[in-house]
Structure formats: structure tokens, C-alpha cells
Design goal:
Elements: H1 3-14, H2 19-26, H3 31-38, H4 46-56, H5 60-63, H6 68-71, H7 77-91, H8 99-122
Length: 123
């Protein structure tokens, strides 16, 4: 497997998604196209690479293995979802019905986790 293929598989499995589901989310006609990227048989074009990065909420550099420091601060999807659900229950609002709001909340959670881990390293 390639670094990109390994990263795609890792990100997909972190979320508990199948290759078929990811292919559908990306609008691919065949799931084998996505599978070939994971296996390192083929590589996505730049537009699709950006879609993959957006889907997995990582940078293209992270998918290509160029930014290890960023990935060390990644939170599992279930942790993020738990935090979002707790906030929704506490404030009686929906944070997942608007993709822009959900993305902003996810960014906030990731940034808070980064700050916490950085403080723990330096403290």
C-alpha cells in the first residue's frame, strides 16, 4: 500500500465507514475506484484528493503523510459526536442540521483538543 492508501484506510476505519459508503459520499459510480486508491493501485486526481481531505476533515498534506504533527491531535469520530450530542442536549439546539455549523463545531473541538495536548506537553 501507499502512504496515501494507508491514510485513506485509516481515516475511513476511524469513522467505521465502508469503502462503499465512502464511494457514495464522494459520488463515485463504482466503489472499486475508491478501493483502488486505498490499495495504492491508482491515485485520485487533485480535485478528488481535495474532496477526500474535506470528507475526512484533514489536509491533503496529512493524507499524503506530510504532516504527522497535525494527525497526532486527531480525535476519534465517536468522541467528536459525543461532544456534539452533549452540547445539543445541554443547549437544546441542533448542531448537525447545518453543514457549516457542524464543520465549525468540529473545528472548534479539534482546536480545543490541540490546545489541551500542547499544554500537556509543555506543562
Amino acid at each position: 500500500m501507499s502512504v496515501l492508501g494507508d491514510r485513506l484506510k485509516e481515516e475511513r476505519e476511524k469513522r467505521g465507514w465502508s469503502q462503499v459508503l465512502v464511494a457514495k459520499k464522494l459520488g463515485l459510480k463504482r466503489s472499486s475506484t475508491y478501493a483502488n486508491w486505498e490499495y495504492g493501485i491508482r491515485e485520485p486526481d487533485l480535485d478528488m484528493l481535495q474532496k477526500l481531505a474535506d470528507l475526512y476533515e484533514v489536509s491533503i498534506d496529512q493524507l499524503n503523510g506530510r504532516n504527522e504533527k497535525e494527525s497526532e491531535y486527531s480525535l476519534p469520530e465517536d468522541v467528536i459526536l459525543d461532544v456534539i450530542k452533549e452540547a445539543e442536549a445541554e443547549y437544546k439546539v441542533s448542531l448537525r442540521d447545518d453543514p457549516v455549523v457542524e464543520a465549525a463545531v468540529r473545528d472548534l473541538i479539534h482546536n480545543l483538543a490541540k490546545m489541551k495536548k500542547s499544554a500537556q506537553k509543555n506543562g
